[in-house]
């Protein structure tokens, strides 16, 4: 009887242990507020409430995120729409699993081409021949800037683009390593306050779009094998998003913690709008823009890009 009781207890523990164990996920994002919903979900215990053990991993350049996902050093990443689409176009089997941030009036105004001291940029054609740093070639800010140049009648090939990470922008602008950087708040305010230069163009505001900036993506294989985890992830992000959009204190604290930016500086700039719902048609504009810039070689089907 004792042996049977011991066996029963053993079976019970074996059956309940997996249910009690939390699924572990590494989420990789760059040092911006776009993944604020995940940051808040970590700090406010929302992921844990949904049975997920999540850790945020900083990624220096957004274009490195797809490779990090496929190497399994992270399971979920926050690529920009452009980085994601180009990765899929290049044959990487990635799928979007939830929305992160979208463009709106506030976020568009926060985007800028910041110009070093000694240069004056009065109009788009003044960027011709200049060396411009972007936080990831073919990433969100770069593609958006190229779109703006084209609309203003400037040939993007006349501008020399190089990669510069967000944390190193101030030093590179100060040293004159580049003439301008494509950036956003709070980096614009930080460099302005340091007397490193001035805003040359608010190109995001001039374009005035409302499309996705960043969304959460995973490998299709991982997402399909972990459907239950993806469901919990989506529920947690949906719960955290309203906090990002309405509670500046909590959102700023989480953003400052992850990005290593001063809290007061982060508080001075509203985070990008968090939108957890991502639909396939939300990617159509980006596909059109990237196709016009000859960044895509195949015809992408939007229905296959977002996990059902």
Automatic annotation (TrEMBL):
Record's keyword terms, sorted: Signal
Residue ranges of the SsuA/THI5-like domain?
A: 35-242
Q: Which GO terms describe its cellular component?
A: periplasmic space
Q: Which InterPro entries match?
A: SsuA/THI5
**What is the top-level taxon of the source organism?**
Bacteria
Where is it mostly found? Answer: periplasm
Signal peptide start and end residues: 1-21
Q: Where in the cell is it found?
A: Periplasm
A Pfam family that this protein carries is NMT1
Q: Which family does it belong to?
A: Belongs to the bacterial solute-binding protein SsuA/TauA family.
- In Swiss-Prot or TrEMBL terms, this protein is called ABC transporter substrate-binding protein
- What organism does the record attribute this protein to? Bradyrhizobium niftali
